[in-house]
Structures are given as structure tokens and as C-alpha cells.
Design a protein that fits this description.
It contains 20 helices and two strands. It is an all-alpha fold and 437 residues long.
């Protein structure tokens, strides 16, 4: 059999293994308490499957569905499509699963969460394939197969598919955008440039900080000479324009439906205010929910529209930063520790979210091993040989997360593919060293 066919079948086998592992876990892992962001994603997904649109479900305090932009739309929309396709838009699905003891409602909730987990499993396998593609574009076949194999088995990227978090979708869009931008470097056609920008736009509609991908992606496709000529500038500008064209319709929707300027999501205010306040500072700047604010302040916020509420909370957070200018640095250090599994409380949150002590331990231990391999891989010649904007991507993703709310390591998921790539370089270097000796 020709060598390229062997490589193809090995690659298919790796992706199939990744899918089997993730689907198996999706079907057998225990269900943890769905709270925080996943509970909101789930609620909006059910609302969409029920025909209410992108909205919060009717509740005793709000008898009508309430249009919202509290989170970026792409992941709740994908959940809504999944729930609609699997028939999970019934009155029993609309029951608040975190506050009911009705066994029928709980059974319905587990059914739709299982469907969502399977979607996350498929996304996880797609991420493994795309990681292999990126590694192949940067370093060739051998590193690509090693990277895909490591990604298929990397525990942290497997368990992140158990809770209903948006990271599984974001990682796929991030890697697809990078792969398209790298492909664009080898062709004069604008198609791959536009595709990279559009994928970054959808990534921004998945997680707010997807916007930071635009700079390194634009630098990657800015290959024309002379650099400041119109043809050379056309490529990065086309990439940025494609991203903005994807995001703009949602911004217009928010202005019409919510009556205010909300580019993607209205959660910036509660993120800032929940991180930068005196109570949070007493707990190592761990994010504090606005629901814990004094009753008078909560009443003021309830009287506002969603954009007004976000702006008001944002000002609360900025006011604290102005009074404590060193706070962002301290927050960044504390949150980096949480991303690196160094914070005991963050590890406890991960255990609650995953719903399994053994899976949590496996994820934490796996991260430790891969971090050490990645450190070794960072010093290889192959790591230094890639275009420098490639390594700007994880740096900007880190910088766009750590000054804000990080309660556990799920926010590290967009960085983990880069950890795997560096680990693959270390493994490749070790194999070559063994052969030479």
C-alpha cells in the first residue's frame, strides 16, 4: 500500500478512536449538577427548540420568554438545533432542571444533555482531526500523526466535552481558522483568507475573546510584497471584513431586540463587576455572582434593560480598578494558577462540573504530563521555525482570559491544542534522538 494511503488510514484510525472514546464517555459518565453558564446555555437551547427564539424561558417572575444576549449565541444556537432535532422542546423540557424533583422532567433533562454530549464528542473528534491538519501544515506528516494521537488521548480535551460548555465548539472554530489561514499562505486566491475570517467571526460569536484571533490570523495571511501595497493589504483586510460581516447581523439584532449596543454578549459587565470588588479580593479574586450584591443594588439592576445593566456593572468593575490599579495584575496571576490546576478550589469546581473524581484526577494528571512535554517541545528547532504569529495565538488567548473571571480550568481549553502541538514536537524530537543513537 502506498505510504500516503497508510498515513491516511492511520489518521482516520486516530480520529475514529478519539470519537469512540468521547462518545463512550458521553453515554456512560455520570451527570453532574448543571449550573452557571451551562444552565443558561441549556435554557436558551430549550427556548429555541420550543419556538421562543434566543430567549430566557418563562418563569414565575417573568411569565413571557425574555430575549437576551447574556452569552454569545453560537453554542446555545447549536444546542437549540440539537434539542429541536431530538424532540426536546416539550413542556417537561422547559421545567427548571436545577430546581425540580419531578422525575419525568429530570429524565427529559438527562436525555437532552446526553444529546448535547454526543454533539460535543463529535466536535472533540473534529478538533483532533483539525489539530492534525495544523501540525501537518507546520511540520509535516510525522508530527501531525503524533499530535493527533496525543490529542485523541489527552484527558483534559476529553472531559471538557462532558459539561455543556462552549469551549468544545470554540476549539474547533479556532483550529479551523488557523488551518485556513495557513493554507492561505500558499495560494494567491482570497477564498481561504475569507474562510479564515468567517471562522474567526463565528468563533467570536461562540466566545467573546475569539476576537483576538483576528490579529494573528491577519498577520499570517499578510504575505504580499511590498507590505504596504494595496494587493498585500487586501488579504488581512479581507479577513477582518469577513469576520465583521459574520458578527454584525447579531449586533444589529441586539440593538433592535434589546434596545442597546451589545456587539456580541452582555456578560462583560457581570464578569468585570464579579471579579473586581472588595469581596472577591478577599477570596483571591475569585469571581462573585451579582446575585450576591446588596438587595438595593440588585433592585436597581432589575429595573434596567440588559444593555443598561451590563454597562452599570461594567462601571462598577472599572471603578474598583481605578481605585486598585494593581488588581488586574493580581487577578491575572491568580487566574493563571487556576488555569494551571494549582488552585485547590478550582480543582474542586472541576470535579463538580465533571461529576467524577477519577476523571478529574486523570484530567489534572494528564495536564501535568503534557505541560512538561510542551515545555520541552518549546525549545526545539521546529517550534522556532514556524511563523511567529502562530505562537501569538495562544499568547493572546491567554491574555484575553486571565484578567477576567476564571473559576476553573475550562478556560484553558482553547490553549490546550497548543500544548499538545508542543508536546508532539517533544515526542518527535525524542523519537529522532533514539533513532540517531
Amino acid at each position: 500500500m502506498p505510504a500516503h494511503r497508510v498515513v491516511l488510514w492511520v489518521g482516520i484510525g486516530i480520529v475514529a478512536t478519539a470519537l469512540a472514546l468521547r462518545v463512550g464517555l458521553a453515554l456512560t459518565a455520570p451527570y453532574s449538577h448543571i449550573g452557571g453558564d451551562p444552565a443558561v446555555y441549556d435554557e436558551i437551547g430549550v427556548a429555541m427548540a420550543s419556538g421562543y427564539g434566543f430567549a430566557r424561558l418563562p418563569r414565575p417572575r417573568r411569565p413571557q420568554p425574555t430575549p437576551t444576549a447574556v452569552h454569545p449565541p453560537a453554542w446555545p444556537m447549536l444546542l437549540g438545533l440539537t434539542y429541536a432535532a431530538t424532540g426536546h422542546g416539550t413542556p417537561l423540557d422547559r421545567v427548571n432542571a436545577s430546581r425540580t424533583t419531578d422525575p419525568r422532567a429530570l429524565q427529559r433533562a438527562e436525555g437532552r444533555w446526553r444529546a448535547a454530549r454526543i454533539v460535543e464528542a463529535v466536535l472533540g473528534a473534529a478538533g483532533v482531526a483539525l489539530l492534525g491538519v495544523v501540525a501537518w501544515q507546520l511540520w509535516g506528516t510525522a508530527v501531525a500523526l503524533i499530535a493527533a494521537g496525543l490529542a485523541a488521548l489527552y484527558p483534559a480535551l476529553i472531559v471538557i466535552g462532558l459539561p455543556l460548555e462552549s469551549e468544545a465548539l470554540f476549539v474547533v472554530l479556532e483550529l479551523a481558522a488557523v488551518a485556513a489561514a495557513l493554507r492561505a499562505r500558499s495560494t494567491a486566491a482570497l477564498g481561504w483568507v475569507v474562510l479564515a475570517g468567517a471562522l474567526a467571526g463565528v468563533g467570536t460569536l461562540t466566545r467573546n475573546n475569539g476576537l483576538v484571533l483576528l490579529l494573528p490570523l491577519a498577520l499570517l495571511v499578510w504575505t504580499g510584497r511590498p507590505r504596504r501595497s494595496a494587493p498585500a493589504l487586501a488579504r488581512p483586510l479581507a479577513l477582518i471584513a469577513a469576520a465583521l460581516l459574520v458578527v454584525t447581523p447579531w449586533t444589529v439584532r441586539n440593538a433592535i431586540v434589546l434596545g442597546g449596543f451589545v456587539p456580541v454578549a452582555s456578560n462583560l459587565g457581570q464578569t468585570l463587576a464579579g471579579t473586581y470588588n472588595a469581596e472577591s479580593a478577599r477570596h483571591y479574586y475569585r469571581w462573585r455572582s451579582p446575585t450576591l450584591l446588596p438587595a438595593r443594588r440588585r433592585a436597581q439592576l432589575r429595573a434596567m434593560t440588559e444593555p443598561q445593566r451590563s454597562a452599570s456593572l461594567q462601571e462598577d468593575g472599572l471603578r474598583y480598578i481605578r481605585a486598585h490599579p494593581a488588581a488586574p495584575l493580581v487577578v491575572s496571576l491568580e487566574n493563571t494558577a487556576r488555569l494551571a490546576e494549582l488552585d485547590p478550589e478550582a480543582r474542586s469546581v472541576l470535579r463538580v462540573v465533571v461529576g467524577s473524581k477519577s476523571l478529574t484526577r486523570l484530567s489534572i494528571a494528564g495536564f501535568g504530563v503534557f505541560a512538561l512535554l510542551a515545555l520541552a517541545g518549546a525549545f526545539t528547532a521546529r517550534a522556532r521555525a514556524v511563523p511567529w504569529p502562530v505562537w501569538l495565538i495562544p499568547l493572546l488567548l491567554w491574555a484575553s482570559v486571565v484578567p477576567f473571571a476564571v473559576n476553573f480550568s475550562r478556560f484553558r481549553a482553547p490553549l490546550d491544542p497548543w500544548l499538545v502541538l508542543l508536546a508532539a514536537l517533544a515526542v518527535r524530537a525524542a523519537v529522532r534522538g533514539t533513532r540517531l543513537n
